[in-house]
Specification:
Chain A has helices spanning 53-65, 162-178, 219-238, 284-293, 298-309, 313-320, 323-335, 340-358, 369-380, 386-397, 403-410, 418-431, 433-440, 447-457, 464-475; strands spanning 3-14, 73-74, 77-80, 90-93, 103-109, 112-125, 129-131, 140-142, 149-155, 191-201, 211-214, 246-251, 256-262, 272-273, 280-281. Chain A is of the alpha+beta class. The radius of gyration of chain A is 30 Å and the shape is elongated. An eight-stranded mixed beta sheet of chain B has the order 4-6-5-10-11-9-7-8. A three-stranded mixed beta sheet of chain B has the order 1-3-2. The two termini of chain B are 17 Å apart.
């Protein structure tokens, strides 16, 4: 039988507010355990939550960016359950009336575009962390993370493959960083995802029973976990079994999913409106202010790169995958506006390779946009050849200075003076009479040989275009 | 000294008749001498006297307000920095808050002295103070009887004149009913008038702090200090605080007092009824007009309350889990076992009963039938009041269906106990200000309270109406000693 996979994602996105969603404590990552937890975060008796307007602002920003309905009245609810890293015994979340309603985002899988629906995005607080190592059979609790603002972005079950799920996840990841509402750091848990996965016979309308996959906190694991889970479910169904609704944990070392708890064991969270927080009312002016602040979004920017800079779809997408990279590119283009394509080749080529090799981010690139702009300008004005430029690029990367300094210091300036190149050509022709004979006899392929010899003799500095012209002139005489 | 009003004490301090240290010492000694009443859970003499010494400096510098140097008792539900806050529970027997509740902070800023933390029903759940981990409080009028609850310790402390005034909290009647039982003036302000920050939550949408005093005049002084918007409490209202003493003397000519027919039906104890009606006749003499009004849904207030309050409580009390502070069971096998034993041992029976009721009401499959339905009824009850206030300025009736009862009389019958708040609960559900003031004594020489209910944020009117009554009667001046 042919099977179809159905996937929906729930993405927990930590918002980049300075303080927590309901308290004044700082949100910075990595502080000593329990040093960023105030009385409210510790849930001491008598404390009360106060909503952080910045968190609402960021949630609205996200909603506007996906064309979603913004609920001007939204309600905070308590989700009740006991766990040591949940200090109040309930999490403040939004159930019935989330701040962001229905919206959508367009994804691109191998050039094929698809619209994925976003059901909702709601504000909630993060829990603390339970530390199971280093406590000799006991559990340590770190409440620094408790109260960090999150938006949980819930998708429609619109994805039909692991590749689509990853593309969606990447699109949201890119978007929240464009909006500057999340640092997107998956290792530190700022951007986390659960996947609801089911399979059904192709052409069947009704959804199959789903499993919720947890602990899939990298793009690669999302893909692998979904693929392995789909295989597992198809195996069960094809051998006549039944998939049970449950939560499953992905084990990346064994590349398998295993059951955490079934639906029967699921908690009854006893949601009810939090009486400590009045309904959140967003005025029109608040929303319009945020709308006016919205940056150009990845999709629009990609389209603009194609039309404005004449880039290919592929190049434009690569450049707009992150806001920082797109900003970098445009800063470099500003230095040499006549060569957007050449600059794109350098950013997507040497620069991307360097970043990848050194595992560093664009914002920490040793070659700044201004430096790259200068380098490409020197190619454009024939100071250096493209080949020499690669050597210069390496030198800039290694901190030896900017392009002009390195060209000067290493004497890499291109020889574009006919009177300097001609004696070299003459000498090479004189030393290779054999080849000259062959060329004149019709073996014009040998032109490349002569060019190579000249370049070698000038240590690559001769302007290749001029060398070609001068050689042809002399040989075809 | 213990018969003086807050204003008289302030004058005495201002005139150097006595110092705050002397005054504080005097009340500390009275507390010590009346330990049998069990009004206090925690008294810290040294800290109180130190605060009094500081107040004396302020007084000497002429840098003082009306409450500077005056010792006050605070219900043990308010967090006090460095002084144990138990909320009447074993769960918090070892809990010392690292911060002051906003109410406490305001009183400290006003220069008042904290005499101690008063006894209360555990987590404010009770109407007799019998659910306290620290034992029952005796009613100073008759030591075989309860002082009411949950602010029973505060009520007994002020009635026995162990403190000039006290704070209480009221979720369903916990200020007004003990005020009635102990012959005091007790005011539950409008929801949102007084900050709840640092006040250990029972039912967040109903809890309000208020004063328990010997007169409306004193209540106005206390409320003045307690009130106001607090950015740390999102449910507190940013409404200006009027001068609560300014309108006390205002003439009552033409005042319309609404009598809810539902409160005066045949179920009402005849003695309470005649005392209440007697008080209303006094108002007529002062020029007020009595009008019959109807609160048709008031009979639903007790069932409505006993769904909503426990529902909120079941969630509010989840934080008492033995993980971060408070009681933790001595031995346990795993996390679940720790939770179960800690909460089974740390909470008393009434608290556990309400957690169970509330958890049930919020559970999947029951939520709509209980919690949601109760919310709808709450709206109906609130609407009843809105309509009633089209016809009158204040509403008056009994505070409680009876006077102070004997210990153990209602402990085996939770519903009988819950019905003690039948006249007070609807006021919390509607978020309105309510007040109880002494209006007579029953045949057993026990105080009877008259309840006044005002419009939203109209505490001034309630204080005015109560004060004028106290100008023509002396019920509020009686004490267990001189009665």
């Amino acid at each position: 039988m042919e099977w179809e996979t159905v996937i929906g994602l729930e993405i927990h996105t930590q918002l980049k507010t300075r303080s927590k969603i309901f308290s004044g404590a700082a949100t910075a990552y990595g502080a000593e355990a329990n040093t960023q937890a105030c009385a409210v975060d510790l849930a001491l008796p008598g404390v009360l939550p106060v909503m952080n307007r910045d968190a609402a602002r960021m949630a609205v920003k996200f909603g506007l960016a996906i064309g979603a309905r913004i609920n001007q009245i939204s309600i905070f609810d308590r989700k009740n359950y006991f766990y040591p890293d949940l200090p109040k015994g309930y999490q403040i979340s939004q159930l019935e009336l989330p701040i962001v309603g229905k919206g959508s985002i367009t994804i691109d899988v191998n050039g094929k575009k698809k619209v994925i629906g976003v059901t909702r995005a709601h504000l909630e607080e993060d829990a603390g962390k339970s530390l199971h190592e280093d406590f000799h059979g006991m559990t340590g609790i770190d409440l620094n993370r408790a109260g960090t603002p999150l938006i949980e972005i819930v998708s429609e079950p619109d994805m039909r493959s692991a590749a689509e799920a990853v593309a969606y996840l990447k699109s949201i990841h890119s978007l929240v960083r464009y909006l500057d509402i999340c640092d997107g750091n998956m290792q530190e848990g700022s951007f986390r995802c659960d996947a609801n996965v089911s399979v059904r016979p192709k052409d069947q309308e009704e959804f199959g029973t789903r499993a919720e996959l947890k602990n899939i906190n990298s793009f690669r694991f999302v893909e692998k976990a979904i693929e392995i889970e789909v295989e597992r479910q198809i195996d069960i169904l094809e051998s006549g079994g039944r998939v049970v609704q449950e939560t499953r944990l992905y084990d990346s070392e064994k590349n398998q999913t295993r059951s955490m708890r079934s639906k029967e064991e699921a908690n009854d969270y006893r949601y009810f409106p939090d009486p400590d927080l009045p309904q959140m009312v967003l005025e029109d002016s608040f929303i319009e202010e945020i709308r006016a602040e919205l940056p150009e979004l990845p999709g629009a920017r990609c389209e603009r790169f194609i039309t404005e800079y004449g880039l290919s779809d592929y190049d434009a997408q690569a450049l707009t995958a992150s806001r920082d990279l797109a900003d970098y590119y445009e800063q470099a283009v500003a230095i040499l506006p006549t060569q957007p394509k050449l600059i794109s080749n350098w950013v997507n080529g040497e620069l991307a390779a360097g970043l990848n090799r050194d595992n560093t981010s664009i914002t920490e690139s040793p070659v700044t946009a201004a430096m790259l702009g200068q380098l490409v300008t020197r190619i454009d004005d024939n100071t250096i050849s493209g080949k020499i430029a690669k050597e210069v690029f390496e030198a800039i990367w290694n901190g030896e200075g900017n392009a002009d300094e390195i060209i000067e210091k290493r004497g890499l300036k291109q020889i574009s003076d006919d009177s300097a190149i001609e004696p070299v050509i003459d000498e090479i022709l004189a030393n290779n009479t054999n080849q000259v004979e062959q060329y004149k006899a019709g073996n014009t392929k040998l032109l490349g040989f002569f060019v190579g010899q000249v370049m070698k003799a000038t240590q690559g500095k001769a302007n290749p275009k001029q060398v070609n012209q001068l050689l042809s002139k002399k040989l075809d005489k | 000294m213990h018969n003086k009003s807050l204003r008289e004490l302030a004058q005495g301090l201002g005139n150097n008749d006595f110092s705050s240290v002397e005054l504080t010492q005097y009340f500390l000694d009275r507390i010590e001498a009346n330990k049998d009443i069990n009004a206090f859970i925690t008294v810290d003499r040294d800290t109180s006297l130190q605060q009094a010494a500081e107040a004396d400096k302020l007084l000497a510098a002429g840098n003082s307000g009306v409450l500077t140097g005056i010792p006050l008792a605070h219900k043990d539900i308010f967090c006090t920095d460095g002084l144990r806050t138990s909320c009447g529970s074993q769960m918090l027997d070892n809990f010392i808050a690292p911060y002051n509740a906003t109410v406490i902070q305001k009183f400290r800023q006003a220069g008042s002295v904290t005499l101690g933390k008063t006894n209360m029903d555990e987590f404010a759940m009770g109407s007799s103070n019998e659910t306290s981990f620290y034992g029952s409080v005796l009613n100073p009028w008759d030591k075989d009887r309860v002082p009411g609850g949950s602010s029973g310790g505060s009520a007994a402390a002020v009635a026995a004149q162990l403190a000039p005034a006290a704070t209480g909290t009221d979720t369903g009647g916990s200020i007004r009913q003990p005020a009635s039982f102990c012959g005091l003036t007790g005011l539950k302000p409008s929801y949102g008038r007084v900050s709840r920050y640092g006040m250990i939550a029972f039912a967040s949408s109903l809890d309000q702090a208020g004063p328990m005093t010997r007169s409306a005049e004193d209540a106005a002084i206390m409320l003045q200090t307690m009130s106001g918007f607090d950015e740390r409490d999102s449910t507190s209202m940013d409404v200006p605080v009027p001068d609560y003493s300014a309108d006390l003397e205002k003439d009552l000519q033409g005042l319309k007092i609404g009598m809810p027919i539902e409160f005066f039906n045949t179920d009402l104890d005849s003695e309470i009824a005649s005392i209440t009606i007697g008080a209303l006749r006094e108002y007529e003499k002062m020029g007020a007009e009595l009008v019959e009004i109807s609160l048709p849904n008031s009979h639903l207030s007790v069932p409505c309350y006993y769904v909503l309050a426990p529902a909120e409580a079941s969630s509010n009390l989840s934080r008492f889990d033995g993980v971060r502070y408070g009681y933790r069971t001595a031995e346990f096998e795993d996390l679940l076992d720790m939770y179960k034993k800690t909460r089974a041992e740390g909470f008393g029976e009434e608290v556990k009963r309400r957690i169970m009721i509330g958890t049930y009401a919020l559970s999947a499959g029951y939520y709509d039938a209980y919690y949601l339905k109760a919310q709808k009824i709450r709206r109906l009850i609130s609407d009843d009041f809105t309509r009633a206030f089209d016809q009158c300025d204040v509403i008056a009736g009994p505070t409680a269906p009876g006077t102070a009862f004997r210990f153990g009389e209602k402990t085996d019958d939770p519903v009988a106990m819950y019905l003690n708040d039948i006249y007070t609960i609807s006021v919390n559900l509607a978020g309105l200000p309510g007040m109880s003031l002494p209006a007579g004594m029953d045949s057993q020489n026990l105080p009877v309270g008259l309840q006044l209910i005002g419009q939203y944020f109209d505490e001034s009117k309630l204080l005015n109406v109560a004060h004028r009554y106290q100008q023509v009667t002396d019920w509020h001046l009686r004490s267990p000693e001189n009665s």
